[in-house]
Specification:
Elements (H helix, E strand, L loop, with lengths): L1 H12 L9 H36 L6 H29 L7 H44 L2 H36 L2
Helix pairs in contact: 2-3, 3-4, 4-5
Length: 184
């Protein structure tokens, strides 16, 4: 019995970090923030797809093969990205939040590991496909728009694509930091 009391005393003296009072609310707030960002991303992708499809019908793209290919590449890459983001959000919703911490952490780590593969394989392919689709349209723009407007579209596209690449990389970097933190 003395041995048990000694072990209990040692157990009580162990150094545990204090549990933050607002820990659960911080996690809930962060989760809601991530869900809102995913919804915003989805809305932006849907609106962009809708604009491109509207552009497709406005220009009667089905009559011009080059226009059809360019817009098809752009819409297709965005639609695939939207599909992957949607399936990922469903997958994340299925994570067992109320399971033991080890199980949840293991599944969350597996989720972000899969996201890492998506970011380093699928994202560059889809981004490149979108850019190729846009550049496929440039000869049509050059023929059908004023020269100054064509040059405006051409030069501004470099800044837009560079900004988009930076934004995508920033988001990927954030997810990689989450993964790194989970793997500690």
């Amino acid at each position: 019995m003395e041995e048990f009391k000694k072990i209990k005393k040692q157990w009580d003296k162990r150094g545990l970090p204090p549990i933050p009072e607002s820990g659960i609310s911080n996690i809930a707030r962060r989760t809601e923030y991530l869900k809102r960002k995913q919804r915003i991303t989805g809305v932006v992708l849907v609106v962009t797809i809708a604009v491109l499809i509207g552009f497709y019908f406005y220009l009667s793209a089905y009559k011009n093969t080059d226009l059809l290919i360019g817009l098809g590449l752009m819409v297709g890459s965005l639609a695939l990205r939207l599909l992957f983001e949607y399936t990922n959000s469903i997958e994340k919703e299925k994570l067992p939040i109320y399971s033991p911490m080890k199980v949840f952490k293991k599944r969350l780590t597996a989720y972000y590991t899969r996201r890492k593969r998506i970011h380093f394989v699928l994202t560059p392919v889809l981004f490149t496909t979108y850019v190729v689709g846009f550049f496929w349209l440039l000869p049509l723009f050059e023929r059908n728009l004023s020269q100054s407007f064509y040059w405006y579209i051409l030069w501004s596209s470099f800044f837009v694509f560079a900004g988009l690449a930076i934004l995508i990389w920033t988001q990927i970097k954030k997810e990689l930091q989450i993964l790194k933190h989970l793997q500690k």
